[in-house]
């Protein structure tokens, strides 16, 4: 199991100059519980993560992100309302990101619902969607989790400036290629772990 959450928790605790016992007292748990979290033997539940974020003065998404990365299988989504393009692009993402869990959506609302229940490390979004724009979808995803990396996909370079103003990590012209996807990984705002390696 990855120790990413354990390392993150230990770093945040030390920055607050708290001992394991100090932190345990503030959370109403035993010192042994904190020690297990910091050794990677156990992970706290969602309620305890919310308490940890309050006590440590950090955004809850930081801790949820660290916990999500413990399984080392990042969630990657692609949203394009054209089924043919989506079905043709998903194998490209699988080739470029063989150790990721990749899910495609033709509907923005379904993508938002998925992101609400799963930590999305990377989202590839078409800019022109049927009932909304990829730019609005990007803002919605970043509201759910500010550490989601977003790469916009479009057939038109005219949208590049608008795309950069959303907080996205990248911009790709269609059709996508495995090489192009791998190149985007170097520009991510929030690199993530995959199979023990950071991308």
Description:
The chain has 199 residues and is of the alpha/beta class. The protein folds into two domains: 4-70, lambda repressor-like DNA-binding domains (434 Repressor (Amino-terminal Domain), Orthogonal Bundle), CATH 1.10.260; 72-198, 3-Layer(aba) Sandwich (Rossmann fold). The protein has helices at 4-15, 20-27, 31-39, 46-56, 60-68, 83-96, 108-117, 134-144, 160-164, 178-185, and strands spanning 75-79, 101-105, 120-126, 149-154, 170-173, 193-194, 197-198. Strands 2-1-3-4-5 form a five-stranded parallel beta sheet, sandwiched between helices. α6 (83-96) links the parallel β1 (75-79) and β2. The longest helix has 14 residues, at 83-96. It starts with a helix and ends with a strand.
Low-confidence runs: none
- CATH class wording of the largest domain: Alpha Beta
Rg (C-alpha, Å): 18 Å
Summarize the biggest pleated sheet: 5 strands, parallel
CATH superfamily placement of the largest domain: Response regulator
Mean pLDDT across residues:
86
How is the secondary structure organized here?
Layout: H1 4-15, H2 20-27, H3 31-39, H4 46-56, H5 60-68, E1 75-79, H6 83-96, E2 101-105, H7 108-117, E3 120-126, H8 134-144, E4 149-154, H9 160-164, E5 170-173, H10 178-185, E6 193-194, E7 197-198
Parallel strand pairs: 1-2, 1-3, 3-4, 4-5
Antiparallel strand pairs: 6-7
Helix pairs in contact: 1-5, 2-3, 4-5, 6-10, 7-8
């Amino acid at each position: 199991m990855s120790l990413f959450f354990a390392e993150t928790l230990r770093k945040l605790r030390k920055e607050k100059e708290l001992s394991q016992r100090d932190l345990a007292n503030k959370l109403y748990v035993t010192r042994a519980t904190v020690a297990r979290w910091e050794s990677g033997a156990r992970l706290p539940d969602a309620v305890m993560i919310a308490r940890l974020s309050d006590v440590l003065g950090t955004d809850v998404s930081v801790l949820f992100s660290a916990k999500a990365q413990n399984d080392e299988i990042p969630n990657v989504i692609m949203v394009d309302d054209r089924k043919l393009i989506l079905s043709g692009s998903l194998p490209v993402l699988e080739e470029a990101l063989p150790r990721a869990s990749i899910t495609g959506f033709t509907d923005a609302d379904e993508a938002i619902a998925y992101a609400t229940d799963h930590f999305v490390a990377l989202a590839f979004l078409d800019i022109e969607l049927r009932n909304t724009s990829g730019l609005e979808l990007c803002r919605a995803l970043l509201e759910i989790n500010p550490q989601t990396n977003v790469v916009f996909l479009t057939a038109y370079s005219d949208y590049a400036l608008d795309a950069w103003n959303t907080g996205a990590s990248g911009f790709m012209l269609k059709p996508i290629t495995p090489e192009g996807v791998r190149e985007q990984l170097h520009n991510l705002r929030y690199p993530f772990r995959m199979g023990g390696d950071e991308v």
